[in-house]
Amino acid sequence: MIRELGLNDIVYLLEASRWTVALALIAILAGGVLGLIVAVLRIVSFKPANWLAIGYINLIQGTPLLGQLFIFFFGLPLFGIQIGAWEAAALALSINASAFLGEIWRGSLQSVSPRQWEAGAALGLTYWQRLTSVILPQAVRISIAPTVGYLMQLVKDTSLTALIGFIELTRASQILSAATFKPLQVYGLAAIVYFVICFSLSRLSEHLEKRTHAAR
Amino acid sequence: MPLVEITDIHKSFGKVDVLKNISLTVEKGEIVSVIGRSGSGKSTLLRCINGLERVQSGRIVVDGMEVTSPATNINALRERVGMVFQSYNLFPHLTVERNVTLALKKVRRMSNDAARDIARTMVAKVGLADKLGAYPDELSGGQQQRVAIARSLAMQPTMMLFDEITSALDPELVGEVLKVLEELAREGMTMMLVTHEMNFAKNVADRVVFMHQGNVHEDGPARDTLIEPRTPELRSFLSAVLH
What we know:
The structure holds two protein chains of two kinds. Chain A is an all-alpha fold.
């Protein structure tokens, strides 16, 4: 049964995009916390911690996100762990984000001049105080652009979760397209929604960069 | 007892011996200029004193604390030994005031108000009272370096180390920084400075240490040593920097 594309359908797409945003937010938050740990493990002067972080980053960055989604969605039930599409999607995206954000932030931390570490040391600050009060705030500034760039990627990557049946923007578009047989209009609409989300992120990035002071 | 007691230290970076069995003492209140060609080890010597560089052998005791002992809390030592760098190294993300208050609050655990009071005093002392709210990138090199000095002084150090602090400055900005040092000298601060400012070394410092190829080659009263160098190495160094 083929029907026309109406206002209801647009509302349906927008409602589905809530899940795209929710999924991206969870991945940013959980992946962000985890990513910070990965970044710190990567730079502390303790070799086993470095190796652990490097291994983790290589494993996650070197395998496709879709494969990670499948492993959680189809793999965990094999071990008796029941998991829904939503949980599997959130888990896979968070872990994926943690590796990429961890590596971006590691680079940002290391791009702050070693002289800043020294200046902190010369004032008697402990390693942890130097890291949190001197290095991190400067690294944040450096990391804004690549972080937001990755977040835009992440927003679009949430579309892969359609393949495990999670109904977000892309899956909703598939359903709608099948019902109306107007793929161009439907996917065009979906593309606009993705664009609006990503464009907002890019404006946010510009705003944040203007607000922070850094070495020039 | 001397404030700084360096006994037979040796330091190498890989195969390069940077400091070769150096012994040196600095008395409280003394102002010592360390001069020498680049690569002679003078900056490394200074950096060993507050533990920014580790020595391979020998002993350094500062204000009763043994820098070279692994048991020493090196951060506690660095609170007492201020250091100012060639490249200022202010924290670019913080205002002048917060550059100065950071260590007071974090290390000394002072309240905001107490730390701010000290910051105001110290920044005024280097003549920048009107710049408390400025960020480092809004200041000239000379102003940044004065803030760096204020930041260090705020910790009320027992002594100060200055590592070529005027070398990165435009010539017309050197004077304002040296003036701050002269003021410190009048107050009796113990200072060790690596410098290329021979006039300053001659007129303000008590003593000059000339380093050559990782050794202390000459060590004596500032004026005499600079006017009548005993060794041909110092003579040739001086004629190179003065012309």
